[in-house]
Please model this.
Amino acid sequence: MQPELVQQGEDLILPSSDPAVTIAKGYRRYLVGFDIAQSATTVDANAFAIIQDERIPHWTEYAQELGPRRRTVVRAERVPAMSYTELGVVVRNLMRQEPLATAGYLVVDSSGVGRAFSDLLLARSVQHTRMQITSGEGESEAKERGVTFNNVSKSLLLNSMNSALHVGDLKIGNFPLRNELQRELESFSVKHSDTGRSTFSGGTKAGHADIAMSVAMALWLSDHRTVGAHVGETRLKGYWD
Model:
């Protein structure tokens, strides 16, 4: 009988007492995308989504191998309008929950009013990747006051998510807002200008495609997780102590 899989942080390990066996270390990590409402209207809300990203090791006849990469949306929620201070507490508490506390990465929408919220998180040691969602087609990195900003176009985020869903690189799990996410995904449309520039629009009566955008952000982070991201629980400073 083979030993059971052991998880250490984000690492997945199949223990073996045979020194001739090369351990194939897998992983299971969680990418959290947090989309900040840009206005107080009822069609623009705070939202987050969590993607589970894993490769599980298994035994063949004589050796260990890694299984295929699997990325699945396992949770998505809207967060009611509230002050940045209150929203910061929500984010802190979310990232302190297991398994996020030991194997979670966070990306926050730092566009527009999100910059101030991101500053609030940073001042209180809530580690995260800052993303500014831009127009255009590509992505770039910039530094301000020693802080890294990842400028990523909306078209790149949505095209990457659409492609991943289409080819099966990203799947949607079962959670309460699954159907709402699917409606948001189906609501997107794109217009192409004479210069070739793409403009995306979408949303439902319940929200301005907030959940879908948070999924797209989390998916981007799954391939950029070393950029300002953090795994594990960080002790917070200031009045949250």
